[in-house]
Amino acid sequence: xxxxxxxxxxxxxxxxxxxxxxxxxxxxxxxxxxxxxxxxxxxxxxxxxxxxxxxxxxxxxxxxxxxxxxxxxxxxxxxxxxxxxxxxxxxxxxxxxxxxxxxxxxxxxxxxxxxxxxxxxxxxxxxxxxxxxxxxxxxxxxxxxxxxxxxxxxxxxxxxxxxxxxxxxxxxxxxxxxxxxxxxxxxxxxxxxxxxxxxxxxxxxxxxxxxxxxxxxxxxxxxxxxxxxxxxxxxxxxxxxxxxxxxxxxxxxxxxxxxxxxxxxxxxxxxxxxxxxxxxxxxxxxxxxxxxxxxxxxxxxxxxxxxxxxxxxxxxxxxxxxxxxxxxxxxxxxxxxxxxxxxxxxxxxxxxxxxxxxxxxxxxxxxxxxxxxxxxxxxxxxxxxxxxxxxxxxxxxxxxxxxxxxxxxxxxxxxxxxxxxxxxxxxxxxxxxxxxxxxxxxxxxxxxxxxxxxxxxxxxxxxxxxxxxxxxxxxxxxxxxxxxxxxxxxxxxxxxxxxxxxxxxxxxxxxxxxxxxxxxxxxxxxxxxxxxxxxxxxxxxxxxxxxxxxxxxxxxxxxxxxxxxxxxxxxxxxxxxxxxxxxxxxxxxxxxxxxxxxxxxxxxxxxxxxxxxxxxxxxxxxxxxxxxxxxxxxxxxxxxxxxxxxxxxxxxxxxxxxxxxxxxxxxxxxxxxxxxxxxxxxxxxxxxxxxxxxxxxxxxxxxxxxxxxxxxxxxxxxxxxxxxxxxxxxxxxxxxxxxxxxxxxx
Length: 746
Ligand code: BGC
Prior knowledge:
This protein is an alpha/beta fold. The strands form 9 sheets. The protein has a 6-stranded mixed beta sheet, sandwiched between helices. α15 (443-450) runs parallel beside α18 (545-553) and α16 (464-472) runs parallel beside α17. Bound molecules: beta-D-glucopyranose. Beta-D-glucopyranose (BGC) binds next to loops.
């Protein structure tokens, strides 16, 4: 499919031009929308009724054909060359026609992981936000809500009523090509961040989605891999993240994933869909398949899939036949339809449909910049090299990463179109699948602006010696190192690509004042770490990224972000040094990852419950940078821990002991009683606290039962074990200032 899609996207701009002429006239669009207003007399127009009652009232008036129409999309549309594009489709990734006679609008779905995808097709602008992994680095739930609001606001302005962003597979596999779309390795952090993001989308009356459910934790062989995992591990890792986010956001949609889990495809997996998602999580929305992730009619329908996307290979005529043959009860189809309609009422897309307007690029950029400022992690700062003092700098060498023209973005279906086109290929039209796109947010310009008297020079970094020569003759050298990541491929290793390790080593050898700014989709190894003064993890920083990076380098913004993933020293330190399905000898996929014809294989992730930082603790291994790590230009002091057993809280004093205002992310880690057989701490709570110099605050963190329980498989429920829980509080998972204990569960 990946090959098919890359071809499709190459032709897409031409195809769309033709389609626009043939099918897409303003008149048809407005006619569609006018018809979508329900007659005032319709009983379901009564907003005081519950979404479920309103859906039932609509269903009483629906024909059988109308019901079957809602449970599948209409095909690949603009995503695949040669696919018909329905006249009223909004040119998003998916389209499902509504029922105008009943006032049920079309559902227009747009990929929108980090910004609205494919805006260029209709000449629209879409804000590129920092990656979701960057958002998770803020540990800021308000920022996560704002992130979703930006997506929802822009989707609405472009006429979309459903987002298919909301990626949240855990970073179990640090090589995963889509880690930048996800919220890190901890289920409690990821669940809260993505829950807020999806709530933000839905606050704009645009239906939200959370994906890819579940365990789509690697891209290698994603169409055939069978993830083998025991129930307790499932529930306490990725599924816990989904549980938290789904209960918080109540999203309209959950997208089931391509892979198999314990032998069944995720989109026909009774355990995942019926038992866990719909029963245990009480999910009231609908399950839509990832694009072509539906594999059957009867099994999928009965296992809980509600809508096939993007076409009707299984949920079109075949579903009607299966119902006629008694293999799928009509009640199941009614349930699918009910879930779709009730979500439309619940989120407000019927009462308050999208209104087209010009996207506000300025507001989007301000929001993106604000989130970027909170998301850039200061990993290393030797000898207080940072913040830079502009007055003391006469010459600055900027090296590599196309920092003279832009910042990198992530690829695949999360790709956003750059305003004016990809700045490193100005002649190109729509983005090409698999090719990096740089956005016009220019680090070199932003740095020059903050150091107006300095001579700022650029070297592309393609020749390490030339770069080193420039670095040697400059007061400081800032190397921009990039790693392009995208859907459908995993990183071959943790090493930076394109000889950039050698580049950084050469520059560091020439200049004792070398700072590395990383634009990556996930963790990378840093063999040169001892020789550089400073490192910033800027992820893919979005359209306000250059200014945010410069503001942090020069101290206009005090860094406050914390890692939502561990950085390993080398691939050998990872639970899976090579991604399952990759042949370690050739470093290539054992099977062609792009075709469904390949042979399946099992992925048995050896870390089990101990995902990410937990695994380092179990193995007594030091990561390069630990989960929760991130430096500030000021210092914080923790004191006076009090454990309040009765109301299950911990309380302590946090003081900014430095000379600069700054935000600390105070983190609470808890180790469960030994009977849990979990010999590692887990994140249980945190708080981002902004403090003026010298200011102290009393911080209270909850001991949340849901975050301290284990999943008891025999009883099929969560259980708070009786016993002593060890508490550790500090600024990172490996930087604990306060320790205590509490007895719970008795
Ligand atoms: C991706 C989904 C995406 C869909 C539609 C699939 O290949 O896995 O995340 O939403 O395509 O573009």
